[in-house]
Structure formats: C-alpha cells, structure tokens
Input
Amino acid sequence: MKKGFEPIPVITPDAAVHYGQKAYRFLAGILEKESIPHAILFTGIEGAGKRSAALSFAMACNCVSQDNPATDSGLRDSENRSLPVSDSFVRPCGVCKPCRKIKTGNHPDIHIVEPSGRYIRIDRIRDLLSSLDMRPYEAMRRFVIITNVQHMNAEAANSFLKMLEEPPERTFLILTAGQKSDLLPTIVSRCQHFHFNPIPNDCIEKMLIDTNRASGEKAKAISLAAGGAFSRAFELSDAGAFLKQTVRRDWLVENSGLGDAGSKKNLPLIFAFAEKISKNKDMLAEDLDILYMWLRDVLIGKYIPHKIINYDAAEKIRRLSVDEATDKLLSRIRAVESARRAILSNANPRLTVETMLIQFSKTG
Ligand SMILES: [Zn+2]
Output
C-alpha cells in the first residue's frame, strides 16, 4: 500500500446510496452519457465523502467485472424505489484486478495528490506532470485525484492549469475543495462541479452500526458529534477517541465557567486557564468549536431539546437550559464567535481567550 494512502472505508450498499445519493446519481448520469468530463470538482465539508466518491468513480470507470453485483443488488433509494442498473457503479465489483489495485492504493495509473503540511507544492505537481507524460500503464482510464486543491500554492496552481487546459490522453481529473470560492475562477470554470452536503446524522449512525464501530447510545452520540462528516465519525469511533473528546469538552466547559448556572471564575483562574488553552493554535480552534457547540446546545435545549448534539451530556444541558437566560447565552455565543474570528485573523491567542472568558464571567 502506498505511504499515506487510506483505503476506502467499508460502506454498506444501503448507507452508500443514502449518504452519497446525489453525488452517486450525478456520477451515474455521467457514465450513462458515456462522456466523462476531463475535470470534475467536488466541494463540501471535510469528511462528506468526496474522496471516497472519487475513488469509487475511478474504480467504476476501470472495473472489468462482467458480472457486476450491483445490477442485482436490490439497492433502493430513499423513497424505496429500486435503483436502475446505471447506478451500478455505486458498487464497482471491488474484486477484479483494477478494483483491488485502486482500493489498496496500488494502481500505477491512479494518482492521488494531497497537501503535505500546509500546501500542495510545485515539486509534487512537477512529479505528477512528468509521470503523466507517459501513456497510462494499464488503466482504461487514468485518474488524477487532487484533494484540498485550495492548498495549492500559486506556482503549483500555474503549472497545474496547463494540464487542466490540455489533459493528456485517457486522463481524468477529480479535484476536491471546501468551496468553489476558495479556488481560482480559471480552475473552477474548467470543471464540472458537484457539491456534497453534510451527511445526515441518521445515516452516520446507521453506518457506525453497520460497520460495527459503535452501537446504541454511543452510535447516536458520535453521529451527532460528527457534524455531518463521515471521516470525523470514524475518528471518534476509534477506541477511546470519543471518550477523550468528551473528557476534553467537560474540562473546557468547567474551566470556562459554563458548567453551572451562575458560576463565576475569578481573574487569576481565568488568566491561568487562558494561558493553558492558547498554547496550541490548532487545538485552540477546536476548543472554541467545542465551547460553541456546548453553548448552542444549552440555547436550543430551551426550545428543541431533541436537537442537542452533545447527546451524552443531554441531561446536564437540559438543566442548564432551564437555569440560563437566553440573552446571556446569546452574548456568550457572540463572545465565542468573535474569538474564532480573531484567531483566524491572527490575533494574539492568549488575549483573545482572556477577553472571551471575561465576557463569560460578566454574563455569569
Ligand atoms: Zn471491478
């Protein structure tokens, strides 16, 4: 297996159809017309299944099985209609030689380019271009999948544009990004675009159960915490990860004074805590998300308690919802939002956190 390559997660046919339904339909439409565009752009949040769909599509376009099980798979769409045969590429056979090679990251004609560190660098694009100079080794259709293409630096983007304008023979590009507006218009205009919506919670829950990653209340709690991202649900379902996240959340909530109604932290405690959590900027961004989701839950717990995301702490959240006033919660949510913005625009992390915590205690 190639270094850094993650195999496609196992998805049950049912869940695959549900979770990627629209994307798979879009791709099925392309296959039906038998004219594959030279470049496809997938946008959507991290973990919405863009990369899996790209790999499935590459498999479907190279699968040599005569007897594709999907033609008789009994797949159903959300309204329980049988899916037509043209949707068969939802399940390329997965066992023929090309399918297996693509699935394990060992196919010489399927190139996956991902950012290393912060950027996709020019060297990586140059390497790619020189390997595309040669004819495909064995694939009917060669694929280049570039993930998070917004991380291409200007130099890399320029040399990549040339390939996008004149793609080599039998070569197809699939690009993924957060949103269209992150990319150069010259890239977007050369691609057929498809947007992935976040995956519905019940699909994530079902997938966790079907793949034996979690069950019962835990599956429900993870699916809510995953925020529509399949990969995040997988991460959280790894042994201990969910527990670790809830322990971190409880620690943050307690020390920010958000765990009890009327709890007030004194200034020395606030400064000490701000120092602790502002050391690592990446982690701080995550911590602010955790606090935001907590406050959001307490607020919506007042009105629509079944929508609470921190499901494992639902009882405590409902209690807080009763005790805390709406205007207080809103002003705390605004404090987290302005902290998030400040961090994104490179403000001093420690001062930012201190300001936010003081705002919390003012409204305590
Ligand atoms: Zn196959």
Notes: The pocket of zinc ion is lined by residues 63-65, 92-93, 96, 99 (CB under 6 Å). Confidence is low (pLDDT under 50) at residues 1-18, 68-90.
